[in-house]
Amino acid sequence: ISVSPPRPRLHRNHKQSTENSHDAETMSKCMNIRFFIQISAEFSIGKSR
Fold first, then answer.
1. For 4-33, what is each residue's pLDDT tens digit?
2. Torsions phi, psi of 10, nearest 5?
3. Helices (H), 1-49
4. CA distance 44 to 36
5. Rounded to whole angstroms, what are the CA distances from 46 to 16, 36, 38, 40?
6. DSSP letter at 2?
7. What is the C-alpha to C-alpha distance for residues 5 and 11, in angstroms, rounded to an integer?
8. Distance from CA of residue 34 to its chain's centroid?
9. Cα–Cα distance, 22 to 10 (Å, whole number)
Protein backbone atom coordinates (compact mmCIF):
# COMPACT_ATOMS: atom_id res chain seq x y z
CA ILE A 1 0.00 0.00 0.00
CA SER A 2 1.55 3.29 -1.08
CA VAL A 3 0.76 6.21 1.17
CA SER A 4 0.68 9.54 -0.61
CA PRO A 5 2.54 12.28 1.24
CA PRO A 6 0.30 14.89 2.85
CA ARG A 7 -0.10 17.94 0.67
CA PRO A 8 1.25 21.22 2.00
CA ARG A 9 -1.77 23.15 3.23
CA LEU A 10 0.10 26.31 4.22
CA HIS A 11 -0.46 28.16 0.94
CA ARG A 12 -4.15 27.29 0.74
CA ASN A 13 -4.75 28.16 4.37
CA HIS A 14 -2.98 31.49 3.90
CA LYS A 15 -5.11 32.27 0.87
CA GLN A 16 -8.25 31.25 2.75
CA SER A 17 -7.37 33.44 5.71
CA THR A 18 -6.76 36.45 3.46
CA GLU A 19 -10.09 35.83 1.74
CA ASN A 20 -11.82 35.58 5.11
CA SER A 21 -10.32 38.86 6.28
CA HIS A 22 -11.35 40.49 2.99
CA ASP A 23 -14.89 39.17 3.48
CA ALA A 24 -14.93 40.57 7.01
CA GLU A 25 -13.77 43.94 5.70
CA THR A 26 -16.45 43.96 3.02
CA MET A 27 -19.06 42.88 5.57
CA SER A 28 -18.12 45.70 7.95
CA LYS A 29 -18.25 48.22 5.10
CA CYS A 30 -21.68 46.93 4.08
CA MET A 31 -22.90 47.12 7.69
CA ASN A 32 -21.57 50.68 7.99
CA ILE A 33 -23.42 51.70 4.82
CA ARG A 34 -26.62 50.02 6.02
CA PHE A 35 -26.31 51.69 9.41
CA PHE A 36 -25.74 55.07 7.74
CA ILE A 37 -28.77 54.59 5.48
CA GLN A 38 -30.93 53.58 8.44
CA ILE A 39 -29.81 56.60 10.47
CA SER A 40 -30.37 59.00 7.56
CA ALA A 41 -33.80 57.47 6.87
CA GLU A 42 -34.84 57.85 10.52
CA PHE A 43 -33.45 61.39 10.53
CA SER A 44 -35.43 62.37 7.42
CA ILE A 45 -38.59 60.79 8.89
CA GLY A 46 -38.08 62.73 12.11
CA LYS A 47 -37.50 65.90 10.06
CA SER A 48 -40.70 65.49 8.03
CA ARG A 49 -42.83 65.24 11.18
1. 777 666 555 556 666 667 787 888 888 889
2. -65, -50
3. 10-48
4. 12
5. 44, 15, 12, 10
6. P
7. 16
8. 14
9. 18
